[in-house]
Amino acid sequence: LLRSLEPRTRKNYGTRLLRFTQFCNLRGIPESQRMPASDALLTTFVAEWSGKVAKTTVESWLAGLSFWHTLNEATWHGGHMLCQILKTIPKKESEKGKKCPPIMLEHLCALRDRLDMRNTFDAAVFAMACVAFWCCRRLGELVIPSKTLFNLARHVVRGAKLGFKCTSGGGEYVNLHLPWTKKTGTKGFNIPITNWGGETASVPAVRQHFEVNSEVPNDALFFAFATRDDLCGWAPMTCDWFLGRCSKVWEAAGLESRTGHCFQIGGATKLLLLGVPPDIVQVLGG
């Protein structure tokens, strides 16, 4: 059951459990009363944080506690009192969902102009930025959270078969199979990497990335880059490294930084403005 969770979800659940444990320690709640936790104890725990954190935060803590009970085959006693106290927690502005501002074409142009395409790391960053934007992808489908979480069953590798093709109009594109996506799970998804975007087009960016990183082995992450800082001579691109480099460039260009999700939003928005049918854009982001 524990293995069914994403690594990040397991980490988050552990953090949520720690909140409850600290709460019980401060109030001298014995271990025997913590699991299964009574409806009254859960209600008191929630009441402690009412008005201090967002309602969704409290609900996420309870989700972690509930899973902890399930994992230990303990009965979950969250009932009427817990539901009532949850109703009293006001929704904060942050809960209504801060809209992620999209990545604009200016952001990609700044990367193109300020990154060194002869540098192995910069070339990988630019190629990934173009693919994430024009293919409307989530960063988690293209990179890994950290160097230790590379999984061949979930992450596309450099040796993936790339079928470069041409459209009837002469435009070049290539299909790339992602072994896992948020929507399709392990069924994966084929994304068409196209020549949309002129100087920020994905196909030439990927070609440049592969050329300067030619020494990276085929079983490495698709956006891995050559480096002398690692004993094996290459390193997989992580989300923090990617966003950190992008943010540094955007700051120097006088542009606001963006989060990873903004690439998908920005790409979809741009394609719609270019006249691409909504159903096609929806399929791209599938």
Automatic annotation (TrEMBL):
Protein name, per record: Core-binding (CB) domain-containing protein
GO BP, sorted A to Z: DNA integration; DNA recombination
Keyword Cell cycle: no
Keyword annotations of the record: DNA recombination, DNA-binding
Keyword Cytoplasm found: no
Organism for this UniProt entry: Phlebiopsis gigantea (strain 11061_1 CR5-6)
Domain of life per record: Eukaryota
Biological classification of the source: Eukaryota, Fungi, Dikarya, Basidiomycota, Agaricomycotina
GO molecular function: DNA binding
